[in-house]
Amino acid sequence: MGLSLGKSGVYAVVAIIAALTRGPLGEQTTSLNPSQSPRPYLDLTYQLLSIAFTLVPVALALYLLSDRGHNPWRLIGLDARRPGRDLLWGVGLGAVIGIPGLGLYVAGRALGITVAVQASALDPYWWTVPVLVLAALKNGLIEEVVVVGYLAERLTEKRWSPVAIVLLSAVIRGSYHLYQGWGPFFANMLMGVIFASFYLSKGRRRVLPLVVAHTLLDVTAFVGYQLLPEEWLTAIGVSVAG
Fold it and tell me: Which of 184, 196, 111 is nearest to 160 (CA)?
């Protein structure tokens, strides 16, 4: 956690304190996928390196779960044993989370407790959409493997109750979204409760449907931001690049 999303949560807490002391949240903006260079191929290089290095904690979590001779992919259900069922569950969970999540974001903007989120600040190069899809997959992998699969398995070993595991997972998930404001914090806590409860439900222990759902949600947000008309984005309170 200290190498990945726990660290992000700490920085997000500091970020929202800074934002609250700077002025009203409703008047501020944040960007999820910023450009890292005005030179297209250098920007592409930085984007790919960022995605690759962000996934290193996923590899570490899988390695740590392989102790005692376990197959970590099978242990947390990140394998291809049930592709059809995992895909259907992923699409269903994405729909269950996506619609209320958008509603909470819009409500947060209306109440002035959520910053305007710019889902992508990348210029429209030929590689922009593929990179945004990879970024979405990266988010799905690190969040679901680390905050659900790894955390749940380790805390189960320590005999934590399912309720305590779900609550901790949800709080951590909400914490590293705090920099976006209170709306995304509560929306992601709700997502954390649903995802962790799904994983811990009897006989399931599969993280792949969660990765599918999370990836679909982020692809919709990141790529949709690039494709939707500017007036639509403005109507739902999404920041439009100047």
Answer: 196
Taking alpha carbons only, the member of 3, 229, 10, 225 closest to residue 118 is 225
In a domain, 92, yes or no: yes
The per-residue pLDDT for range 1-45, each reduced to its tens digit, is 999 999 999 999 999 999 999 999 988 988 889 999 999 999 999
**Does residue 240 form part of some domain?**
no
Place of tokens 């009203």: 24
Identity of residue 188? N
Beta-strand ranges (E) seen in 11-115 are 29-31
- Domain count within the chain: 1
Residue with tokens 């910023």: 34
Nearest to 58 by CA among 222, 182, 211: 211
pLDDT classification of 147: cutoffs 50, 70, 90: very high
Q: Does residue 221 lie in a domain region?
A: yes
- Residue range of the domain that includes 96: 5-235
Q: Report pTM.
A: 0.91
Q: pLDDT at position 187, please?
A: 92
